[in-house]
Amino acid sequence: MAEQTRVLVVGAGPTGLAVACELLRAGVPVRVVEAGTERSPRSKGIAIWPRTLEILHDLGIAEEATARGLPLRKGTLWSQGQPLTTFDLTDLRSRFGWGLVLPQYETESLLERRLVELGGKVEKGVRCAELSWSASGLPRVELVSSAGTEQAEVDWLIACDGPGSTIRAAAGIDMAGELERYGWVLADVRMDTELPRDGVNWFLHRDAVLHALPMPGDQWRLTMTVGRERPDPAQWPVERIQRILDERSPVPMRLSTAEWVSGFRVRQGIARQFRRGRVLLAGDAAHVHSPAGAQGVNAGLQDAANLGWKLALVCRGDASPTLLDSYDAERRPAASLTVRLANRATRGATLASAAARAGRDLIWSTAGRRGVVQRVVPPAVSGVLQSYPAGLTAASGPLLAARRLRSVVDLVRGRPGTGARLPDVRLVDGWLWDLLPATGPVVLAWAGRGRAWDDVDGFTALHRAVPRDVPVLVFDSPGAPADAIPDSPRWRVVADFGGRVRRALAAGPDTAVVVRPDRYLGARGSSASPGAVRSYFKTVGGTP
């Protein structure tokens, strides 16, 4: 290697490609290596939920992904042959009121093309064989390819090399977890059925489960629990799969062919830390969970979105490396929750006791009738409810507990607080996120009712707290005078017709919020007393 690599990403699956794209669009050079020589033709992870579509939108590939994929708008839960409840994804304060079914090779193809557009490339057939550390503490890797062996010293090493991560093991990071009780069969099939092709169906039958998900073209993805051992795909011909369908689904499904059959058991787990010095874990190298909820690709891309902008700031010298501690502090609890929920969903779907199953079904059906399922499940499954209450600065004990409690209180009050996702509100002529910069933070402030436009002292204080290169959007009703805000090309007044943005953020006339590059709120406070805003930019290295 002619010169030291700033960032090396090992693994060119969706997570590795996405974090490389995030770094490149922030101006940070990155090298990506992949052990495989060809992209897998298998569909693998196929469900992309709305929050992940937002990430793909920021990367500039959501429109084509949607064109290649199949929209997924609803879900139905069945038990013992009867529908228990249903939900839809249409009201999420996101431009994406649907999920997407897209084979993983298509997702990887779009991300790799974007990587190349940004000036990067994937070096295929290059395997990371060893990891050690230099005398200065930098990661040193041995890369093996058909061209020979290369010793490379890097500033930062991102492990996206899957559940059996070589880098995770070499870094001495344990993966805490357990082997799931059940074996699973996954089959991509062609079949005749009256199931609608815009929804996912979960069929619970005694202590077993069957998932049926439509795929682009005329295929379906079937996932089913089958005993307690890892199934051998060779022992699962179409006829045997058909018997499972006949037993568990009240809606007829008639198989014609199986394009791909796989058998597996899931060792659910989460790495004990996502960062060790200059080694960072992401995607399946950091967390593995049950297929329940179809969160695999989604969790990995959330890792990429969270890590990319932080590492870019550190690499550019704009922030201290301690900022990367917040990657572990934010993403590990979020991934841990995903693992726990997937585990509980599987356990809840495979109850052995008939009485327990009856109680479960009663709870689900009652919650569905009372609207609880529609209020809770879509935001949770879609990813838009995920938040990062730990914040960017280190916290533990009572302080961390207080932050988490505040996050819960904000959620109950419908008030997005620090660490919450910024709602992408529909405006008269577009969407709120369209007003935000492609990279970097932005400050949103409010004025108007309850505040005279000539009272600019608060804006003066905010102006002093915000770095000069950070844009500020001041929302108010139509007709607000532009000369009421500081004379700066980065400040502008935006009409909030009908107060849609104000209501979505429960903002008052003196509210100011910082939106991070990943579209989460970095701080929430007051324009007149912008201590929280100033603290945010001090943490990430901004200079007012």
Would you give an account of this structure?
The protein is globular. Strands 1, 2, 8, 9, 10, 11, 17 and 18 form an eight-stranded mixed sheet that branches. The protein starts with a strand and ends with a helix. Helix 1 runs parallel beside helix 7 and helix 7 runs antiparallel to helix 8. It is an alpha/beta fold and 544 residues long. A hairpin with a 2-residue loop joins strand 10 and strand 11. It comes from Saccharopolyspora thermophila. Its cofactor is FAD. This is FAD-dependent oxidoreductase.
In a nutshell, what does this entry contain?
The protein is 32% helix and 29% strand. With 544 residues, it is an alpha/beta fold.
- Low-confidence sequence ranges: 449-456
Number of DSSP E strands: 26
Overall shape: globular
Give me the number of helical elements: 14
**Roughly how much helix do the residues carry, as a percent range?**
25-40%
Which band does the percent of strand residues land in? 25-35%
- Class based on secondary structure composition and strand pairing: alpha/beta
Main beta-sheet strand count, sense and barrel state = 8 strands, mixed
Mean pLDDT reading: 90
Computed Rg? 24 Å
CA-CA gap between termini: 39 Å
Domain FAD-binding: 5-340
InterPro entries: FAD-bd, FAD/NAD-bd_sf, RIFMO-like
Cofactor: FAD
Pfam family, one: FAD_binding_3
Keywords:
32% helix; FAD/NAD-bd_sf; 8-stranded mixed β-sheet; RIFMO-like; FAD-bd; flavoprotein; globular; 544 residues
